[in-house]
Amino acid sequence: MIGWEDVYKVVVAMVPLYVALMLGYGSVKWWRIIPREQCDAINRLVCYFTMPLFTFEFTAHIDPFKMNFLFIGADTISKFIIVLVLVLWAKFSSKGSYGWSITSFSLCTLTNALVVGVPMLKAMYGPTGVDLVVQSSVVQVIWLSLLLFVLEFRRAGIEGATANIIVDDGALKPKATSATIIGSNNNNGFDDVNGGKDLEATSTTTLEIGDVGTRPPFRKLMKLVWIKLAMNPNSYGCVIGISWAFISNRWNLEMPSIVEGSISIMSKTGTGTAMFSMGIFMALQEKVIACGTSMTVFGLVLKFIAGPAAMAISCIAVGLRGDVLKVAIIQAAVPQSITSFIFAKEYGLHPEILSTAVIFGMIVSLPVLIAYYAILEFIH
């Protein structure tokens, strides 16, 4: 049963994140320590150095041979359910789009399990809860790698589709006009390219560009994506970490201390620098809630209702019962992954929504998770 001491432990784990957030915010907004033109460089430091090393260190120390594969299967099925729903929504709904589907997937499925999930599940279900939430974090690393692939694919498609834009008398004009794409002020300049369907945006910049048919052929597009992924250290952090976990546990090997020390010195800064970068991003926005109240509520609904609902369906489908079922549902309601914001910022896809989901999600999560725990106690 959860007591005040357990709640205090969760608060102790969460408060340092907000300290890092406020330091990042203040360094730009109040103290002017970091110039605005240098802010993107800090996010790239987190994206390409601290996060890949954090991913490697975390995955390299798990034992893949002792994982609960029924639980992992339920987690995987729940994500496939969400992917299927979002793809159908993007394809057949007039309001659907693939850019928003990517963001919605992040909101529904990606969690901050280590910071919030571990202390909460430990208080609720003891070592069993901790073990399962750590396993879900390992699997999430794989999904983050797949998310990285989708984001690179989107970026490559956008770059190919905009290749024919020319400048004439200071104005952007197309070589041939047949599609209008609404741009974004984020890093990549455009929200999405999918035959003119994805026309939502986070800004009001409208550019006439060349026919979407001028995008590179699929084979060439995939080649560009794989080249980008090959140059992205986040791709290696997951693959090498899990590979080492299998090898080390199969043959009882230990990582050389000089290698482990070199990795941990940067990886330990991962969560802190990510929150610091988020604080910087907040400082650059006109409002603290950059995405508005309605989108904040939408993100919280996806995070705390849609995600756990999909997990409940998949758990029942595979036959999970008892505490494992309860842990699976509650860990799906753990607040938003910080890494999802870092990727959103780097690839220019709704970072204002992901940052708001992280910041307010952690505040809301404590009463929500306790409510889930109380409700699930009636299930035997």
UniProtKB/TrEMBL annotation:
Entry GO CC: endoplasmic reticulum; plasma membrane
Classification via Pfam families: Mem_trans (PF03547)
Major location (coarse): membrane
GO molecular function: auxin efflux transmembrane transporter activity
InterPro entries hit by this protein: Auxin_eff_plant, Auxin_Efflux_Carrier, Mem_transp_PIN-like
Bilayer topology annotation: Multi-pass membrane protein
Record keywords: Auxin signaling pathway, Membrane, Transmembrane, Transmembrane helix, Transport
UniProt KW Transferase keyword: no
N-terminal signal peptide: none
GO annotation, biological process: auxin polar transport; auxin-activated signaling pathway
Transmembrane regions listed in the UniProt entry: 6-25, 45-62, 68-90, 102-121, 133-151, 225-245, 265-284, 296-320, 353-375
Subcellular location: Membrane
Family of the protein in this entry: Belongs to the auxin efflux carrier (TC 2.A.69.1) family.
NCBIfam families in the record: 2a69
PANTHER family from the UniProt entry: AUXIN EFFLUX CARRIER COMPONENT 1B-RELATED, AUXIN EFFLUX CARRIER COMPONENT 5
Stated role: May act as a component of the auxin efflux carrier.
Protein name: Auxin efflux carrier component
Gene that this polypeptide is encoded by: LOC107486111
